Amino acid sequence: MGYDPMRRKPDKRGAVRIFVFGRRKLLLAAGIALLAAAYLLYVRQERTAFVSGTPAGERTVHMVTGEFKSTLENGKEIEAYRWDPGTVVVRKGEKVRLSITGVNGASHPFIIEGLGIRGEVKKGEETIVSFKADKPGIYRIICLTHPDFAHGGPMIGYIVVD
After folding, report:
1. What phi and psi values does residue 4 have, to the nearest 5 degrees?
2. Which of 34, 43, 48, 94 is most buried by a 10 A CB count?
3. Any bridge partners for residue 141, and if so which?
4. Which residues contact 128 (CB under 8 A, 6 or more apart)?
5. Exposed (0-12), middle (13-18) or buried (19+): which is 5, by Cβ within 10 Å?
6. What is the pLDDT of residue 98?
7. pTM score, two decimals?
8. What's the pLDDT score for residue 20?
């Protein structure tokens, strides 16, 4: 007599318990457990907005200055500068600390429209800018050295507050 998954064995109290799981149900249960674990890790990471060395409740966003260069068929060299990441999304009411490191270009004086912030990023140095995201909207961070195509730009990034 072979294995019979439907064979019932009474326990000490005489009750019959059956636990039969097919392969599909086991895979489905494992998949659900994996998704639940991934979601919990994501939520935990979202709640951890504190970075060591910063004031409590302030989130640090790291940015760099970048440059792209190319040579046209006629031999003319073109270049474009940018902020990386180009878009930063923060929550309304969040305290934000932008840590901007100069990688390409000697100097990038900048403004953040609507926030009244001015600063300068120099090659090989870190510039720190802090603000509280009080009002929802899209705020442009504009390099004043590269404001348009004629000057290797536009070097414009976006801070989205929602």
Report:
1. -120, 105
2. 94
3. 112, 157
4. 97, 98, 99, 100
5. exposed
6. 96
7. 0.62
8. 62
